[in-house]
Amino acid sequence: MKIVTILKQVPDAEARVRSKDGTLDLSGATFVIDGMDEYGVEEALRIREGGADAEIVALAFGPKRTAEAIRTALAMGVDRAVHVLGDEPLDALATARVLAPLVRDEGADLVFVGGKQADWDSAALGPALAEALGWPHSDWTTSLTLGDGALEVIHDVDDGSETLTLPLPAVVTTQQGLNEPRYPTLPNIMKAKRKTLDTRALDEVAAAAGVSATSTTELRSAVIESRARRNVMIEGDAASAAAELVRRLRDEAKVL
Amino acid sequence: MILIVIEHADGAPRKSAYELVSLARELASEGTSIAALVVGDDPDAVAQELANYVPRVVVVRDPQLAPPRAETMTRAVEHAARELGAELVLVSGSRAGLSYSPRVAMRLGAPLLEDVTSLTRDGEAIVATRLSYLARVTETVAAHGTPVVVSVKAGAAPVAEGAEGAGSVEPLEVTFEADDVRVGVAARRAVTRGRVALEDADVVVSGGRGFGSAERFEELVVGLAEALGAGVGSTRAVVDAGWRPYGEQIGQTGKTVAPRLYLALAVSGAVQHLSGMNRSKVIVAVNKDPDAPIFRVTDYGIVGDVLEVVPAIREAVAGEG
Ligand SMILES: Cc1cc2nc3c(=O)[nH]c(=O)nc-3n(C[C@H](O)[C@H](O)[C@H](O)COP(=O)(O)OP(=O)(O)OC[C@H]3O[C@@H](n4cnc5c(N)ncnc54)[C@H](O)[C@@H]3O)c2cc1C
Ligand SMILES: Nc1ncnc2c1ncn2[C@@H]1O[C@H](COP(=O)(O)O)[C@@H](O)[C@H]1O
How confident is residue B29, by pLDDT bands cut at 50, 70 and 90? Predict the structure, then answer.
């Protein structure tokens, strides 16, 4: 079988994000493979280690630096990778339109997508990609069992969780709990350097597939805007601090 | 016309439904009507309730809609949006809404504004704010064209008041294709039954690893939540330890809440956790570490041991009567 894992490169979670004049300044940030995507890479590797005869291909869209995130996935154990090179961001729906034909050309049976991107806080790519492919999807997946031409998954829903059965091919978006991603070992990092990374220009990919590579939404500004907080520290022993807290919540903040 | 998609549970609309009503009212310019879509195997009570809020309620009744799945919802919403000629489709930014709304947008060839915290018109454009970079950044994003599909984050709009006069309730037929029902739901496990649903809660009591055990979490965090009529939340560390179910996790990979009051008890305040609760109106933290990052985003903080302070808060609340 063939498994495709979609990758994105994002600023490190602890990175300092700044904004000026309505634009983000990410110049000080280190970029890493999105933690949510690592779950997909790990799960694909485990499926193969569980005995499935699977080729695992990483597929990423993004600027040149995205190659570093791809190398991380290759060092984890992915077989080869395709990088769609585009300097300007695309929204989730446009990304899905561009990546879907490549997934189809690969003849993939299963696609993993990170459950929620750490840069745009978006969970749309997985479902949008599934729709572009005409496949079913499972989101927020915490457990996965591969059967004969089908998957059984457990995924989170608003009121709890569900066990779903999906026919393959299918798109699965990940969630923590699915697995514990491995760290690349030094020998594997060395080996990864010799693996195939096929880089293609966005315009060519889009033209070949006859899809539009333009976002339908327009980012007008991005600012760091935090809510002003009272920052009151309440002193005293447990009983008097608790009493003071409850009094303030009732009389001052009026939330009790 | 603006189509709002209603989520409901146990025969009643969820809080998000009333928030979508007020958002739709704000956006409805002159001559724009509002319709609510209610789907399910037994949607009548919810439809009647909605008719007290909007002039038109469209009902899809089908046993295949219980439980709703991403693909059945996609079909129902797509069909209703086309039939009614929707220019805007508003859905809740719940897990369910975030799951089917991208599919609806793709199918309608519409732009998607995802998980928005506000929505306005600017000439021909629909302009939203939304959070990004683990909820640290507020973006302004615009969409052009008709329709536009929007998922709306909890708390983005106030809960609506009822309207004068009852709206109409009418059925809508939807034909489900084989592909719409190819995903089977083999089992469902509810975690919030009998308690206040996290998304609907006005007050959330959330606990972190500092409680040390599932038993103490149950006694102190759940105990205080029950005393306050609050929802229970937790951190990933707590969920990973197996003390609480995933459905209660708040943060980047858990749920997003914006209650009137959020109590973070023995929660360190990692960015991934903050991204799920930093829009709460008032935040309280209790932590024994005065340098815990959570104190940077709190309204009221107490440096102390939760094992002492939490029972004391409970007593103080009880003392209030
Ligand atoms: C991809 C990714 C996604 C993630 N998503 C989420 C998410 O959605 N939600 C989430 O919560 N986390 C998430 N995390 C994890 C996050 O980074 C933190 O590890 C987690 O939030 C820590 O949980 P905690 O505060 O309970 O535990 P800790 O960080 O261990 O903090 C425990 C706190 O309790 C205090 N404490 C201990 N004992 C007491 C006591 N007796 N009295 C008072 N205070 C006490 C300590 O001072 C400390 O501040 C994610 C991480 C990654 C990498
Ligand atoms: N930080 C972001 N969050 C969400 N969407 C974005 C972001 N940056 C860019 N986009 C999307 O990518 C498209 C192109 O962005 P740009 O080329 O930066 O104008 C816009 O229409 C946005 O929808």
Answer: confident
Judgement on whether residues B39 and B161 belong to the same structural domain of the protein: yes
Least CB–CB distance from A241: residue in B70, B253, B304: B304
pLDDT beyond 70 at B195: no
Over the stretch A44-90, which tens digit does the pLDDT of each residue have? 999 999 999 999 999 999 999 999 999 999 999 999 999 999 999 99
The reported pLDDT for the residue numbered B75 is: 98
Q: Cβ separation of A233 and B301 shorter than 8 Å?
A: yes
Kindly indicate the confidence band of residue A177, based on its pLDDT and cuts at 50, 70 and 90.
confident
Enumerate the residues of chain A whose CB falls inside 8 A of the CB of residue B299: 229-232, 253
Architecture per CATH, domain A2-209, reads as 3-Layer(aba) Sandwich (3.40)
pTM of the model: 0.90
Looking at the domain assignment, is residue B187 inside a domain?
no
Tokens of A106: 């690969």
Q: Does the beta carbon of A215 lie inside 6 Å of ligand 2?
A: yes
Structural domain contains residue B119: yes
Average pLDDT over residues B43-68: 96
Which residue segment(s) compose the domain that B169 sits in?
Answer: 2-181
Q: Would you state the structure tokens that stand for residue B37, as one six-digit string? A: 């879509």
> Number of H helices and number of E strands within chain B?
9, 17
What residues in B contact A157, CB-CB < 8 Å? 95-96, 188, 247
Tell me which residue in A166, A216, A222 faces B137 most closely, judged by beta carbons: A222
Distance A141 CA to ligand 2 centre (A): 27
Whether a cis peptide bond, with omega within 30° of 0, leads into A11 is no
Tens digit of pLDDT for each residue in B87-129?
999 999 999 999 999 999 999 999 999 999 999 999 999 999 9
Query: Measured between alpha carbons, how far apart are the two ends of chain B, in Å?
Result: 48
SS (H, E, C) chain A: CEEEEEECEEECCCCCCEEECCEEECCCCCEEECHHHHHHHHHHHHHHHCCCCCEEEEEEEECCCHHHHHHHHHHHCCCEEEEEECCCCCCHHHHHHHHHHHHHHHCCCEEEECCCCCCCCCCCHHHHHHHHHCCCEEEEEEEEEECCCEEEEEEEECCEEEEEEEECCEEEEECCCCCCCCCCCHHHHHHHCCCCEEEEEHHHHHHHHCCCCCCCEEEEEEEECCCCCCCEECCCCHHHHHHHHHHHHHHCCCCC
- Please give the pLDDT value at position B320: 67
- Closest residue in A to B99 (Cα) is A127
Residues of chain A with CATH 3.40.50.620: 2-209
